[in-house]
Amino acid sequence: MKNLDDVANTIEARLEEKYQVREVAIKSARVITRLSGSIVHAIHSGGETSLMMHEAIDETHRLRSLLDAYPELWHSGLVEGALQELAEAVILIALLDDRDIPDPDDMGIPVNAYLLGLADTVGELRRFALEKLREGRPEESAKYLDIMEEIFQMIMMFDYPDALISIRRKQDIARSLLEKTRGDVAVAINSARLQKKIDSLSQNLH
């Protein structure tokens, strides 16, 4: 086995290269996660999102190029979580702007990350629904509830084992959030109707 050392050196060189690429990918994924979180925060606070969105998408393209030779890393958990956060931010902006949600292929995001990100928008939409309820605008809150319903029906179409996509827990969470929001909106709308009747009776008595 005269070539044993040569084989070992070849394997070591390739593993070292993959290790270095992995380290860069981890840092890139953290940047995407941070930017995506900042985008969602800005959406809720009414801040500007376009610059951060461009940065996040550019970073995603750089990460994709870096991992062209390592597709197993591109589809790994260390990258999927970041892409899921980005998908959630991009989809949420589209929903709030009343636009069609982007296609995962157009975004260059794996379908698993995209679907999990879509499921997470249900929680963000609930936050908007509750905000409208606090503002005393239950009819506007019901619009967010309708979107939540549509997304829930869509994600429930996917019944696959966790080994293929870990969607079941998010489906359960979405179901719980949807049921809570239905109750909150129903109570608020009924209360508003009752208050109108009371106000009307009070005016008639005067």
Automatic annotation (TrEMBL):
Entries under CDD domains matching the protein: TRAX
Keyword check for Metal-binding: yes
Binding site for Mg(2+): 124
UniProt entry keywords in alphabetical sequence: Magnesium, Metal-binding
Pfam families in the record: Translin
InterPro entries referenced in this protein's UniProt entry, alphabetically: Translin_fam (IPR002848), Translin_sf (IPR036081)
GO terms, molecular function: metal ion binding; sequence-specific DNA binding
Annotated protein name in UniProt: Translin family protein
Organism from which the protein derives: Candidatus Methanomassiliicoccus intestinalis
